Amino acid sequence: MQHVKIPQDRIGVLIGEGGETMREIEAEAEVRLDIDSEDGAVAVETVGDPVRGLKGPEIVRAIGRGFAPEEALQLLEDDMMLFDVVDIDAAARNKNDLKRQKGRLIGEGGRTRELMEELSGASVVIYGSTLGIIGTPPQVDAVRSAAEMLLDGAPHGTVYSFLEERHNEMKHQGMQYHRFPGSGSS
């Protein structure tokens, strides 16, 4: 059994209307969730496939970090899917700086966050003092690097160029991968 703590205001999202979301997570991840709505503590117990069960706490954590349940459930689609968190607070000097750093990551009208998603193929959510990422290892790595560049003060244009480059690399690797079906190495 694993224990995950999520923010108070995310408990309703985790439970869902009439417990619908909670039941879906339990069925899909083959776990049982015991949610304490007083303090946000969630006990996750594997009741089926242990490998799927391992993703249970990650799904709960992802919802706690601002992801919609549908996005969090993408973690079950494939063994390679990861959930990662960038701590914005760690890069901020104070409350005002945290606000500024979050603003840099979100971008004008949410454009920077959207570009991170579009160019990496990952899901990206900024909530509280964290940036959450769900995707494959190369996708998560691209977003984490872009976020760290922005937090280190890199100009947005530089970060967009970096993301474009990574996008093209991933696309190119994807094409190569599909071009030679069945061959051991390419």
Quick summary of this structure?
Keywords: RNA-binding. The chain is α+β, with helices and mostly antiparallel strands.
List the helices and strands and how they pair.
Layout: E1 2-5, H1 11-15, H2 20-29, E2 31-36, E3 41-46, H3 50-64, H4 69-72, E4 82-87, H5 88-91, H6 95-106, H7 111-120, E5 123-127, E6 130-135, H8 137-151, H9 156-179
Antiparallel strand pairs: 1-3, 2-3, 4-6, 5-6
Question: What keyword list fits this structure?
Answer:
RNA-processing protein; 186 residues; Ribosomal Protein S8, Chain: A, domain 1; KH_PNO1_2nd; KH_domain_protein_archaea; 53% helix; RNA-binding; KH_dom_type_1; three-stranded antiparallel sheet; alpha+beta
Number of strands: 6
Number of helices: 9
Trace the largest sheet across and list its strands.
Answer: 1-3-2
Radius of gyration: 18 Å
- CATH superfamily grouping of the largest domain: K Homology domain, type 1
Low-confidence stretches: 178-186
CATH architecture of the largest domain: 2-Layer Sandwich
Distance between the termini: 42 Å
Element string (H = helix, E = strand): EHHEEHHEHHHEEHH
Sheet with most strands = 3 strands, antiparallel
Can you give the mean pLDDT?
A: 93
CATH class of the largest domain: Alpha Beta
